[in-house]
Amino acid sequence: MKTVGFLALVLLLFFPVPARAGNIYGNLWLDGRPVAGAQIEIACPARHAAQTDNNGSYRVFIPEKGRCTFVVRFGNQSAQAEIASYDNPIKYDFDVIRQGTGYILRRR
């Protein structure tokens, strides 16, 4: 039994479990309701795309680390915000706020 435990420890040391690094996820809200079907684009500098589900949720894997531009498009409108990508997953929930004739993103 000790041999099995030792073998498992050796395997974990030499073949670590891959981390979920670079996952950016969250929800979009407009007037207290989820924004369904919005197009998400994250540029870091490579572009990565996703779409919100019916609950306004999204998830994008970003292999790069650093500053990124988060852009959401829905209907004929768009809004953007600066975000950061890290080694570990990070959650970005945004409220889409009407401002004048356009929209802005405000982090929740």
Task: Tell me the layout of helices and strands.
Elements: H1 2-14, E1 23-30, E2 33-34, E3 39-43, E4 47-51, E5 57-61, E6 66-74, E7 77-85, E8 90-91, E9 94-99, E10 102-107
Parallel strand pairs: 1-8, 1-9
Antiparallel strand pairs: 1-2, 1-5, 3-4, 3-6, 6-7, 9-10
Structural summary, described in words:
The protein is mainly β. The protein has a single domain (20-107), classed as Immunoglobulins (Immunoglobulin-like). It has one helix at 2-14, and strands spanning 23-30, 33-34, 39-43, 47-51, 57-61, 66-74, 77-85, 90-91, 94-99, 102-107. Strands 1, 2, 5, 8, 9 and 10 form a 6-stranded mixed beta sheet that branches. Strands 4-3-6-7 form a 4-stranded antiparallel beta sheet, with no helix packed on it. It is globular and about 35 Å long. The relative contact order is 0.22.
Quickly list its features.
four-stranded antiparallel sheet; mainly beta; 108 residues; 12% helix
Mean pLDDT: 85
Count of distinct structural domains: 1
Give me the CATH superfamily. Answer: Immunoglobulins
Strand and helix order: HEEEEEEEEEE
Shape: globular
Q: How many DSSP helices?
A: 1
* CATH T-level topology: Immunoglobulin-like
Q: How is the biggest beta sheet arranged?
A: 6 strands, mixed
Q: How far is the N terminus from the C terminus?
A: 50 Å
Radius of gyration: 19 Å
Q: Any idea of the CATH class?
A: Mainly Beta
Strand content: over 45%
Structural class call reads: mainly beta
What is the quaternary state of this protein?
single chain
